[in-house]
Amino acid sequence: MSDAGVSRGLVRQLEERSRLISAGHRHLGWKAGFGASASLQRFGLDGPLIGFMTDASIIADGTQIDISGWGRAVAEPEIFVVLGADIPTDGGVDAARAAIASLGPAIELANIDPPPEDVEEILAGNIFHEAVVLGDDDPARRGADLTGLEARVTVDAEELYRTTKLEHLTGRIVEVIAHLAALLSDHGEEMRTGDVVICGSVVPPIDLGPGMAVGFELHPMSPISVSVR
């Protein structure tokens, strides 16, 4: 991306990441956001935006989290990948595919406050990221193999979504990873072995209110859940 707002926002974001790591937080990986076609068109983007995750992001499966101080809390059922190799600065889709060692289900919690209006500020605020639940990853899915997988999403134990179109809203996972790696490369960073990357919500974001519980199953993999108060 050549947009100056994207570049400025990512510089500010990476400065905040560096500050947190210097303060003792451990790097976990990266996240994609705003990759749905409507968001790309709205903000004039050629691919998703990127955010970062540290160990402070991780919450356990089944955790209840307090959202009382949030503006607009949403849950996003996502697919995460684990990288088994560095992605070189001149890598592309083939390099991204080769680097993906496994994948699994994730639920991201985001606080969309204030509402997204300016790309620089969205990036500087780390794309509203608050927390993430990570399920078990499956190394048989290396290269982002989605064959036979079905997303099943529940709210308060009632099924809300069921789909096999796992890349319909996010774009192809290998292309998402390649795009994010290119963005980082433009700013002197790389995607490295062991990085966890959440790839965008496979269904529309779910607005949360106190007492709600969200479950996500990337069938036939084990389900995960989170609840809020």
Structure report:
The chain is α+β, with helices and mostly antiparallel strands. It has one domain: Alpha-Beta Complex (Fumarylacetoacetate hydrolase, domain 2), CATH 3.90.850.10. Helices cover 23% and strands 33% of the residues. It has 5 helices and 12 strands. The strands form 2 sheets. Strands 1, 2, 4, 5, 6, 9 and 10 form a 7-stranded mixed β-sheet that branches. Strands 3-12-11-7-8 form a 5-stranded mixed β-sheet, with no helix packed on it. Strand 7 and strand 8 form a beta hairpin. Helix 3 crosses helix 5. The longest helix is centred in the N-terminal third of the chain and has 19 residues, at 4-22. The mean pLDDT is 95.
Element-level helix/strand string: HEHEEEHEHEEEHEEEE
Helix content: 10-25%
Q: Total number of β-strand segments?
A: 12
Integer tally of domains: 1
Helix vs. strand class: alpha+beta
Beta content: 25-35%
> Segments where pLDDT lies below 50 for 5+ residues?
none
CATH architecture, please? Alpha-Beta Complex
CATH class: Alpha Beta
Can you give the mean pLDDT?
95
Number of helices: 5
CATH topology: Fumarylacetoacetate hydrolase, domain 2
Query: What is the assigned CATH homologous superfamily?
Result: Fumarylacetoacetase-like, C-terminal domain
From the N-terminal CA to the C-terminal CA, the straight-line distance is 39 Å
User: What kind of sheet is the major sheet?
Assistant: 7 strands, mixed
Alpha carbon gyration radius: 16 Å
